[in-house]
């Protein structure tokens, strides 16, 4: 099969604009009309955005009122005067995240689907609002009876299945603090995370299936549980073997804990908590050192998730959000944006391209997904397999495709319109675990331009700063956020004096959040993320983001993936290799090397043509799929392999072994 042919496209070309009907029916249009009735009139997205960052208290209060936040108490301060990272929001009030996710249980037929789910072990099925609500109330009641209360940590070593969603909602419903890790995480990766927060109860599965292969987790679970002395209860879900109870210690089965009478809605009380109460702990990738335990609160997440789900994803009642994710990535937490908007969430656990890359499109068609999130890396696989989703599947329900996880090239945008649908809203967005949402987002009020992220999100004062701390336009700088946002971390667990928090984000520009990405904003507001700051290619004083190199590399059908690093050598020289993973049936010839050099010289920079192109069997990536540029760079600088990255935090540790051997051979 061959990939669909797309017309030539240049960066910034307008590929799509919302029609009048779509604009009239959009969530953001209705919100702006609501604001106008209250004396706030705005002409388009940029006018609205400017108000949202100039007067954040008024903006976030409007979100509170517009979505009719369920709460107790009266607002003392919408936002306190404390500077970042100590700013607090809606003090004096108490609310609960799970209560908002499940508030629509009786808004319509309770038997309508809330969750669509499937895995390599389970066929496609649905769970209704009534079933989720009943299970959450029963499990939450059981947790309370087991002595779990507000602030206690409850963790999960579970895949992306309905039981994980129910466990998360039940935990947060009673004010306990949630955290999760995917079962493909190795034992030490899980221990590095969970040991920092001292959980009281853990949900576990016996194993999972990925790419057609079964993975028993019994041995890893024994090691994990042995390293978590604070765990008092283990709740087991037989997933790989439905009858399995083969754990190293006594457990309570999922079936047993839910085998109790129903708890009626009117007989269940959600634990409404203050604005500084921990909702969940998300963790940074932890490729080197202990991952950061990022704590977010109920208030901030509820507000941010309503804003993003409604105005940056345009999810609506009855719609369905489908993101391919594991429970170890913040994207999994955002799947609840569907139910939050009285819609549905689509869960899938397994290899995204097994037996081939048609899989996710088939799920989207079967579930009538309206918003689908995929990575540019996955799109590359789809293209290489000659799949044309809009031709091969009924995607008539699909309204939007979100290109997330890494920067998207103009060619990826153009392919989306040619191969998925000419009237979808394709949007590249960029955010972070730290916010559990987007920083740079999109809006149907703005045109889709090839290769660009449309705008900073509402309420997000994102800019590019030069090295001397000045805002810059049409120039590459550091991505910063100048004013507080509600979903910024409350703190890092155990970091009582904000020392690690401050060192991570406020060490460069005091009082201003430095995110760690290289970014460029153009004159009309579009943004380009050019890679992580610590992976910038700085050669002879000329800096370029690695994402710019990858944009060119993604156009070579012979190449599946690539990674580039630049290291400084003694005497002022540089060594910049480009590693490539070849597509099946292709080899790295001298002609291909010459073509790569020629294209990079003309499309990027003569100073950033690699010193050599090296074929690698696989490109190392983190568990969330990000290229491991910094660890590879450290290997080439001579750092010992055991210090550059945790193997358990690596998606494909064998790939890192190859790079360690390459570095050793070069040094020798």
UniProtKB/TrEMBL annotation:
Translocase in keyword set: no
Entry's EC annotation: 6.2.1.16
Molecular function GO terms recorded: acetoacetate-CoA ligase activity
Residue intervals of the Acetyl-coenzyme A synthetase N-terminal domain: 45-100
Sorted UniProt keywords: ATP-binding, Ligase, Nucleotide-binding
The family this protein is said to belong to: Belongs to the ATP-dependent AMP-binding enzyme family.
Name of the protein described by the UniProt record: Acetoacetate--CoA ligase
């Amino acid at each position: 099969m061959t990939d669909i042919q797309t017309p030539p496209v240049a960066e910034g070309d307008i590929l799509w604009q919302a029609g009048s009907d779509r604009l009239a029916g959009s969530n953001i249009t209705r919100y702006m009309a609501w604001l106008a009735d209250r004396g706030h009139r705005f002409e388009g997205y940029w006018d609205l955005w400017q108000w949202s960052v100039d007067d954040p208290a008024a903006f976030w209060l409007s979100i509170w009122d517009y979505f009719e936040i369920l709460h107790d108490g009266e607002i003392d301060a919408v936002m306190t005067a404390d500077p970042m990272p100590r700013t607090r929001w809606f003090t004096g009030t108490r609310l609960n995240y799970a209560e908002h996710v499940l508030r629509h249980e009786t808004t319509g037929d309770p038997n309508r689907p809330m969750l669509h789910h499937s895995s390599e072990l389970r066929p496609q099925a649905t769970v209704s609002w009534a079933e989720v609500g009943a299970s959450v109330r029963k499990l939450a009641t059981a947790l309370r009876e087991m002595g779990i209360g507000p602030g206690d940590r409850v963790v999960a070593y579970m895949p992306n299945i309905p039981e994980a969603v129910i466990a998360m909602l039940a935990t947060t419903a009673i004010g306990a603090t949630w955290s999760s890790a995917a079962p493909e995480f190795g034992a030490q990766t899980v221990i590095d995370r969970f040991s920092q927060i001292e959980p009281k109860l853990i949900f576990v599965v016996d194993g999972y299936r990925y790419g057609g292969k079964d993975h028993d987790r019994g041995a890893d679970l024994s090691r994990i549980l042995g390293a978590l002395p604070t765990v008092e209860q283990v709740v087991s879900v037989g997933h790989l073997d439905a009858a399995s109870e083969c754990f190293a210690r006594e457990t309570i089965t999922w079936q047993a804990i839910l085998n109790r009478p129903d708890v009626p809605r009117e007989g269940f009380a959600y634990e409404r908590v203050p604005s500084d109460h921990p909702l969940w702990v998300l963790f940074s990738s932890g490729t080197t050192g202990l991952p950061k335990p990022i704590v977010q609160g109920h208030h901030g997440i509820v507000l941010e998730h309503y804003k993003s789900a409604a105005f940056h994803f345009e999810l609506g009642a009855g719609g369905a959000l489908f993101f391919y994710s594991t429970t170890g990535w913040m994207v999994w937490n955002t799947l609840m944006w569907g139910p939050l908007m009285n819609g549905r969430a689509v869960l899938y656990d397994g290899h995204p391209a097994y037996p081939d890359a048609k899989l996710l499109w088939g799920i989207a068609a079967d579930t009538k997904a309206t918003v689908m999130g995929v990575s540019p890396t996955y799109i590359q696989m789809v293209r290489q397999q000659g799949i044309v989703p809009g031709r091969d599947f009924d995607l008539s329900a699909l309204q939007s495709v979100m290109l997330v996880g890494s920067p998207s090239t103009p060619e990826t945008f153009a392919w989306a319109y040619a191969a998925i649908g000419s009237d979808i809203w394709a949007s590249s967005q960029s955010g972070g675990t730290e916010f559990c949402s987007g920083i740079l987002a999109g809006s149907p009020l703005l045109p889709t331009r090839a290769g660009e992220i449309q705008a900073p999100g509402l309420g997000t004062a994102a800019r590019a700063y030069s090295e001397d701390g000045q805002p810059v336009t049409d120039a590459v700088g550091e991505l910063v956020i100048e004013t507080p946002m509600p979903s910024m971390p409350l703190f890092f667990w155990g970091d009582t004096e904000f020392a690690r928090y401050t060192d991570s984000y406020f060490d460069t520009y005091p009082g201003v959040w430095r995110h760690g990405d290289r970014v460029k904003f153009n004159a009309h507001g579009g943004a380009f993320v050019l890679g992580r700051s610590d992976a910038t290619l700085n050669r002879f004083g000329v800096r370029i983001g690695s994402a710019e190199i990858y944009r060119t590399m993604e156009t070579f059908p012979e190449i599946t993936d690539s990674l580039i690093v630049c290291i400084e050598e003694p005497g002022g020289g540089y060594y910049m290799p480009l590693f490539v993973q070849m597509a099946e049936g292709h080899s790295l010839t001298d002609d291909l090397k010459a073509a790569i050099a020629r294209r990079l010289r003309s499309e990027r920079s003569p100073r950033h043509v690699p010193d050599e192109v090296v074929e690698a069997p696989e490109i190392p990536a983190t568990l969330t799929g990000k290229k491991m540029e910094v660890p590879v760079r450290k290997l080439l600088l001579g750092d010992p392999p055991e210090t550059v990255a945790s193997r358990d935090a690596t998606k494909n540790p064998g790939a890192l072994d190859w790079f360690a051997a390459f570095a050793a051979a070069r040094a020798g």
